[in-house]
């Protein structure tokens, strides 16, 4: 009789998750599940964050199937009994501060950890995008899965295209933001977001909002956004951000939309080569277009 091989994985909180055998029934936060799906791992359940509602945010869900994977809830509405009722042998989420498990209330996380291994991978400030990808790849590898070799080739090509676009002639001014509503927006601080930091490392000129409160975001009026004169706006496409149709009544938003190229930006995109290659190609095309090349 073949013996099971014990499984363990050290996460980015410094916690060691241990199981008697390799986990196969995995419940994940949406972003983590979309990432693992790109590596060939199919979750058996999904959950959202306090920003999410009773249905999954399709932007965060990446290429996860729309049917067949139950959505168990979000924020305070996610009950430990609901998660445990799906009989998981592993729960996976992300962490922004190296301590809190994003999407899980602290009490919920404690109750779950008494019954099932929990893993959180860092996606917050100070993490390089390549490191984030490598950590998810390491987790997927421990689960017996991995991205196809073609994904690495695609990413190399996308990074080359981005560097070429950013380095060829005048550099357009790029602003990343999340629309709060007709009156204001949250401007992303590029250093706080691994994907934005990587754009900057590849030569893209990202605008920094004014210093002030907020480690990840700075609050601004649309008049202040317009005054920054961005050539490209990376606009948050998650469900919790205000959609363009809710902003059209504002003159300053209309001025921004008329003068800048709008590119969808998902701050919680899957942390996979395939997803990052797609984003880099989109930004490279916008940079070329804004520069008239």
Automatic annotation (TrEMBL):
Record's protein name = ABC transporter substrate-binding protein
